[in-house]
Design goal:
alpha/beta, eight-stranded mixed β-sheet, 2 domains, 41% helix, 16 helices
Length: 420
């Protein structure tokens, strides 16, 4: 087993963070945060020459129409049964005035999402002018999702405006979905790899959620009797739907009609529940995204050899980054805890907000013969790869990274054949 998946105890209280920060409590539904610190200068004699990127689409309406329809159905049923409290009746009234436009636009990018990608592209262009100012090719690939395609358009248009000499091409092939949106790839184009772990401590999402959520405190605010929700599974679904809506609706609405539904403690617990859900569905299945790692390595090697674009851009979804960060052991996220309650210390969905991204920046020595160096930016901030030895600050040898990748591939071979 590669050293990437050895961990040590975390020392911060994650729940305090999400109690006190609404955007982070919003998990993957929260907006992008432009709060990265200043970058560390490259070691003397080095300059950037290539960027490899994967970015999630920007802010959108809820991805699943059921987030809107299930809430409305349950509130309407409760109204018909006469079990809504005064706050529940007000929520139903406000929801009826709110939900139609978001429902019709389910999954679509919103103006904030367009702006996020424009600014991220501008930040990239300002931070690494050496990569772009002489022109060259930029190749963008994107999942078949409309919100990802529109996000790519925002990003590439902003980059083209900054550097008109760039030759930017783009494609959206189903055969590339193993890289851009693994879970949607056609059969054979996203092979499984050995090593998918079991749930920590054997605890399912349903059991974890039922153990954690304060049903009386949340549901009692809205209903005088919650039996109509259909037992624990129905209660979990309603609470999580409401929390997902609460987390995301500020991406496209200035309303505050949900803001008093959760106390800070309930907010923190619901974040932990959603965080565990996404760990099991995404982070725990990290090895399937070896195909993305292989793609990044292959195209970077081509750039090092003097062929291919000066930048490779990929646009997709949160489930890819939620798995890819642990796969890379980014900032120590590769550790696999053996207790469900410990997942939050190693995996945090607030690291994957709307428009979240990862960038590999490669550096070449000005004099021939030196090592190729690289660093990794996560949402614009320099990150660590604890399994590697740093050359200086956040800078690592590309050859060391390739050796680690080879070890990872050997430990987790494909268990399904590749496409013909």
């Amino acid at each position: 087993m590669p050293v990437a998946f050895i961990g040590s105890a975390q020392t911060y209280n994650v729940l305090d963070i999400v109690r006190n920060d609404r955007d982070k409590a919003s998990a993957c539904e929260g907006p992008y945060r432009f709060d990265a610190p200043a970058l560390t200068p490259a070691p003397k004699g080095y300059k950037p020459f290539y960027i490899s990127h994967y970015g999630r689409h920007g802010s959108r309406y809820a991805w699943d129409s059921g987030t809107y329809t299930r809430i409305r159905t349950q509130l309407t049923a409760a109204s018909g049964a006469g079990v809504l409290t005064e706050r529940g009746r007000r929520l139903l009234s406000d929801f009826e005035a709110f939900y139609e436009i978001p429902l019709v636009n389910t999954g679509d990018l919103v103006p904030l999402g367009w702006e996020q990608h424009k600014l991220i592209a501008q930040n990239m262009g300002h931070a690494f002018p050496e990569v772009f100012r002489k022109g060259g090719q930029v190749h963008a690939r994107v999942s078949v999702s409309t919100r990802a395609i529109v996000s790519m358009n925002s990003f590439t248009l902003a980059l083209q405006k900054m550097y008109p000499g760039l030759d930017i091409t783009a494609d959206s092939y189903h055969t590339e979905l193993g890289v851009t949106a693994n879970q949607s790839a056609p059969r054979g184009y996203a092979p499984e790899f050995a090593g998918r772990p079991s749930p920590p401590g054997g605890e399912s999402y349903a059991a974890f959620a039922a153990r954690k959520i304060d049903f009386p405190g949340i549901l009692g605010k809205l209903f005088t009797d919650d039996a109509f929700l259909g037992g624990e599974a129905g209660k979990v679904r309603f609470c999580v739907d409401l929390f997902d809506l609460w987390g995301g609706y500020h991406n496209y609405s200035d309303s505050d009609f949900l803001e008093d539904l959760f106390t800070p403690d309930q907010q923190a617990v619901l974040w932990e529940v959603v965080n565990y859900r996404d760990y099991l569905g995404h982070g725990g299945n990290r090895f399937r995204h070896i195909v993305l790692l292989q793609d990044i390595e292959k195209h970077a090697d081509a750039a090092i050899a003097g062929g291919g674009p000066c930048a490779d851009l990929r646009f997709g979804h949160d489930h890819v980054l939620n798995a890819f960060f642990p796969l890379l052991n980014l900032d120590g996220a590769g550790y696999m805890p053996d207790k469900a309650d410990d997942v939050k210390y190693w995996f945090q969905t607030y690291r994957t907000p709307m428009a979240s991204n990862i960038q590999f920046i490669l550096y070449r020595p000005r004099r021939a013969g030196g090592d190729i160096l690289f660093k990794v930016l996560h949402n614009g901030a320099e990150s660590t790869l604890p399994q590697l030895t740093s050359v200086s600050g956040p800078y690592y040898k590309w050859s060391d990274f390739k050796a680690w990748c080879a070890e990872l591939y050997a430990a987790h071979p494909p268990v399904t054949p590749p496409a013909r």
